[in-house]
Each structure stands twice: as C-alpha cells, then as structure tokens.
Amino acid sequence: MSMVHVAPEAHLVLDPLTSFLAEEREDVISYSMDPIMAQLDELDLIADDLINSLSPDMQLKSSFPGRETTALSAGFYGNAFYGIIVGLGVAGLLLLVMGALGVM
C-alpha cells in the first residue's frame, strides 16, 4: 500500500486504493500490506490444494503432470485387496463354524 504525494509542500498524500486525500502527519505510521498479501495468496493456494486432495480426480499442486487418476487407481487396488482379505477371512471362519457344528 503506497501513498502518492500529491503536494509535498502542503504535505498532502493520496491513497490510490481508496482515493482518499489526507494530510501527511509525523505521528501516523503506515505499513505496507503487500508482503502479507503475498503470503496470504500462497496460503490460499495451499488451502485449495488441501481441498483438491479430498477428490481423487483433481491434480495436486506438487504432483507431476499426468497423475490425475493415481489416487483413484490406488484406492481401487487398495480396497480390492482388503475386500479379498476380509472376504477370505469370513469364508474361513464360516467353514470353521460349519465344521464344528457338523453341517459339512
């Protein structure tokens, strides 16, 4: 946020963002918010990347090109593996119970 010195001899400054004309005073300190706004923009990109990580078909900020469906295929194979393991465990437990009851 920079101030434009309209009339340095009259100590008049203009704020270009609000078009506010005021007297320049020694007891008022004005800080530039540009570095903070740059950091906020970076945090906004990080927040968007965090939201994109919840969707398997969105590309992440730090990923390589062409890897949009990696999370989708990894989720498919991971869930298929655990489904097979749980299914075989339930089937084996069912066979043990049926063998103990003498149904087979």
Describe the structure.
This protein is mainly α and 104 residues long. It has two helices and three strands. It is rod-shaped and about 105 Å long. The mean pLDDT is 84.
Task: State the shape.
Answer: rod-shaped
How many separate structural domains? 3
**What is the assembly state of the chains in this entry?**
single chain
Elements, N to C (H/E): EEEHH
Taking all residues together, what is the mean pLDDT? 84
Measured between the Cα atoms of the first and last residue, the distance is: 83 Å
Family: Belongs to the MtrB family.
Subunit structure: The complex is composed of 8 subunits; MtrA, MtrB, MtrC, MtrD, MtrE, MtrF, MtrG and MtrH.
Organism: Methanolobus zinderi
Catalytic activity: 5-methyl-5,6,7,8-tetrahydromethanopterin + coenzyme M + 2 Na(+)(in) = 5,6,7,8-tetrahydromethanopterin + methyl-coenzyme M + 2 Na(+)(out)
Please supply descriptive tags for the structure shown above.
mainly alpha, methanogenesis, translocase, 104 residues, single chain, 3 domains, transmembrane helix
Can I get a quick summary?
This protein is mainly α.
Write the layout of secondary structure elements.
Elements: E1 4-7, E2 12-15, E3 20-23, H1 34-52, H2 70-101
